[in-house]
């Protein structure tokens, strides 16, 4: 049965530009709204016919983006009843999937070209959406520990997992009780991780976050009379800002990783600002990492990258591969 959108209006912006996602990313090209409407009828409240005669949504509307995410997660990964509170970070699913797929390639390069199926991954700052563990387990069967400093966010993530029991068995939520810590208090004395991942807060203060939001509204030719803290993807508090911003957070992450050098094969983080990279490389040199890599990701007009580092020398890397991935 064909589900029709409830409202037909001409509204811009249309769909985002075509992207250059990872080859294994399920979200290539434009969104198939007819298929997504079948996956989640709630999306019909937000779908319209744009100026080009195509089905679309208003990508500046956080409620519309959340409904799109619900449909994408159900259609592509079988995730049911995904939801987040109003004003929490509503991540763009295709871009989040790209990080996961690039991490899979990183592991494969360390495992004779084969993506390990038994990886243990730590997601720092999983938020209310729990996106990385949901996609990572769906695509590769990995097990996750997902941490956050916000108990309310973890409570929402737990509700999502309760609705998706097949994933709940493989995703463990942990509260970080020390807002100044990253790995400390999360990684147990008897735990080892093949990967850590993180999408750190961009801004250094609430004022900076609001200014960034206003620039986005102006670029769209829209006004933000409510002075919302973020644009279509939402976000609040530590999701958007922290002391020192992205640069300060990643530098603290690097310093803490040096305290547990053999407890993880690859430490990784997203880096939104290319200007942050020199300070990251300096910090990595100061803690004497064995190897570090920068992997660029291009998504339409947006450019991002991830930085990965390891303290393991070649002998330790071979032993890790034998013990945890290949058995030989």
Pick out its properties.
two-stranded antiparallel sheet; 16% strand; alpha/beta; single chain; seven-stranded mixed sheet; 328 residues; rRNA processing
Q: If you compute it from the alpha carbons, what radius of gyration comes out, rounded to the nearest whole angstrom?
A: 20 Å
Main sheet specs: 7 strands, mixed
- Helical content (DSSP H or I, runs of 4+): 25-40%
Number of structural domains = 1
Mass-distribution shape: globular
- State the separation between the terminal residues, measured CA to CA: 52 Å
Strand content: 15-25%
User: Could you tell me the number of beta strands?
Assistant: 9
Explain how this protein is built:
- With 328 residues, the protein is an alpha/beta fold.
- The protein has a single domain, classed as 3-Layer(aba) Sandwich (Rossmann fold), CATH 3.40.50.
- It has 10 helices and 9 strands.
- The protein has helices at residues 33-39, 62-77, 93-109, 131-140, 151-162, 165-168, 206-219, 245-257, 277-286, 314-326; strands at residues 48-49, 55-56, 120-124, 143-148, 171-175, 193-198, 264-271, 291-299, 302-310.
Task: Describe the structure in brief.
The chain is an alpha/beta fold and 328 residues long. It contains ten helices and nine strands. It has helices spanning 33-39, 62-77, 93-109, 131-140, 151-162, 165-168, 206-219, 245-257, 277-286, 314-326; strands at residues 48-49, 55-56, 120-124, 143-148, 171-175, 193-198, 264-271, 291-299, 302-310.
């Amino acid at each position: 049965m064909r589900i029709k959108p409830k409202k037909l209006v001409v509204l811009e912006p249309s769909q985002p530009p075509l992207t250059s996602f990872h080859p294994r990313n399920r979200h290539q090209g434009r969104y198939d709204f007819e298929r997504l409407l079948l996956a989640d009828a709630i999306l019909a409240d937000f779908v319209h016919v744009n100026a080009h005669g195509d089905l679309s949504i208003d990508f500046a509307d956080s409620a519309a983006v959340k409904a799109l995410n619900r449909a994408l997660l159900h259609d592509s990964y079988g995730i049911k009843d995904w939801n987040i509170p109003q004003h929490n970070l509503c991540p763009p699913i295709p871009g989040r999937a790209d990080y996961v797929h690039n991490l899979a390639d990183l592991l494969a390069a360390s495992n004779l070209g084969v993506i390990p199926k038994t990886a243990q991954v730590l997601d720092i700052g999983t938020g209310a959406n729990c996106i990385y563990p949901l996609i990572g387990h769906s695509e590769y069967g990995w097990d996750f520990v997902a941490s956050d400093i916000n108990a309310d966010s973890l409570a929402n993530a737990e509700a999502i997992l309760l609705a998706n029991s097949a994933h709940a068995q493989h995703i463990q939520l942990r509260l970080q009780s020390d807002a100044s810590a990253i790995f400390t208090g999360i990684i147990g004395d008897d735990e080892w991780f093949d990967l850590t991942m993180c999408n750190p807060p961009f801004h250094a203060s609430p004022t900076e976050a609001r200014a960034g939001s206003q620039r986005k509204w102006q670029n769209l030719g829209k006004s933000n009379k409510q002075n919302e803290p973020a644009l279509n993807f939402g976000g609040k508090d530590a999701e958007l800002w922290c002391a020192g911003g992205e640069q300060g957070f990643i530098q603290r992450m690097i310093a803490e990783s040096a305290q547990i050098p053999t407890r993880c094969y690859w430490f990784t983080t997203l880096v939104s600002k290319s200007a942050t990279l020199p300070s990251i490389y300096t910090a990595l040199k100061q803690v004497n990492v064995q190897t570090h890599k920068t992997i660029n990701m291009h998504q339409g007009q947006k450019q991002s990258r991830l930085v990965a580092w390891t303290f393991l020398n070649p002998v330790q890397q071979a032993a890790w591969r034998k013990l945890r991935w290949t058995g030989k």
